[in-house]
Design a protein that fits this description.
Layout (H helix, E strand, L loop, with lengths): L6 E4 L5 H12 L3 E5 L4 H15 L3 E4 L6 H14 L5 E4 L14 H29 L2 E6 L12 H20 L5 E8 L5 H4 L2 H8 L3 H9 L11 H11 L11 E4 L7
Parallel strand pairs: 1-2, 1-4, 2-3, 4-5, 5-6, 6-7
Keywords: Oxidoreductase
Family: Belongs to the short-chain dehydrogenases/reductases (SDR) family.
EC number: 1.1.1.30
Length: 261
């Protein structure tokens, strides 16, 4: 367990990609603070399972990623109760789809706050703790939309392009402190959130389940296969290794060939 003695925060980790990150880190011995919204009992079940399965300490914090003061308080709590923040994975995100001229202003503000600004606030709070130890790993879940655009996703595309730029800037600033900063850009990942969209799309467009998957969701992915949360987590885990100490400022595509076209 190469992360024994290390501590991590993973935002947006009560399900999906974020929970896969948390499980992978804990399995390698890291203490983990998970974060996100959801049913309280279900969250406690996942938190307890992390401890029971791996023996690593696991905490839950309900900080709202649109609130800078709550973000700072969560990082401070992790420092106090877990002994530090060695690994920071910023994964929380929301989406809204509409043309620019019809895009609700409040939705724009919320997406930019949660998908982009929260990563800045997390970095701002955690980097001093990492500098003090001369070691740190910062990883953000970007998206294929950090590299290419799609119609009707102005806020999401802008935020994810911003993540790619923030990653590069932060990497340069902390390069001499033993801290690496990278982002991972998945295409469509098979999560409960994606699976739950299929019935509504079938009904709205009059399509079969197979048509929704292949012709709508996976239209841009040449492999016609969903990325799996565990695959994204495995890449993040590698970036935490000492073998990856020279990798910083990078944006890793994991999109089934989407951005190769």
């Amino acid at each position: 367990m190469f992360l024994k003695g290390k501590s991590a925060i993973v935002t947006g980790s009560t399900s999906g990609i974020g929970l896969a990150y948390a499980k992978a880190l804990a399995a390698e011995g890291a203490s983990v603070m998970i974060n996100g919204f959801g049913d309280a009992a279900a969250i406690e079940t996942e938190r307890a399972a992390l401890e029971a399965t791996t023996g690593a300490k696991a905490l839950y914090d309900a900080a709202d990623m649109s609130k800078p003061d709550q973000i700072a308080a969560m990082v401070a709590r992790a420092a106090q109760e877990l002994g530090g923040v060695d690994i920071l994975i910023s994964n929380a995100g929301i989406q809204h789809v509409a043309p620019i001229d019809e895009f609700p202003i409040e939705k724009w503000d919320a997406i930019l706050a949660i998908n982009l600004s929260s990563t800045f606030h997390l970095m701002r709070a955690a980097i001093p703790l990492m500098k003090a130890r001369n070691w740190g790993r910062i990883i953000t879940t970007a998206s294929a939309h950090s590299l290419v655009a799609s119609p009707n996703k102005a806020a999401y595309v802008a935020a994810k392009h911003g993540i790619a730029g923030l990653t590069k800037t932060a990497a340069l600033e902390v390069a001499t402190h033993g801290i690496t900063v990278n982002c991972i850009s998945p295409g469509y990942v098979w999560t409960p959130l994606v699976e739950n969209q299929i019935p509504d799309t079938m009904k709205t467009r009059g399509l079969t389940r197979e048509q929704v998957i292949n012709d709508v969701l996976l239209d841009a992915q040449p492999t016609k296969q969903f990325v799996q949360p565990e695959q994204v987590a495995a890449l993040a885990l590698f970036l935490c290794r000492d073998d990856a100490a020279a990798i910083t400022g990078a944006n890793y595509s994991m999109d089934g060939g989407w951005t190769a076209a």
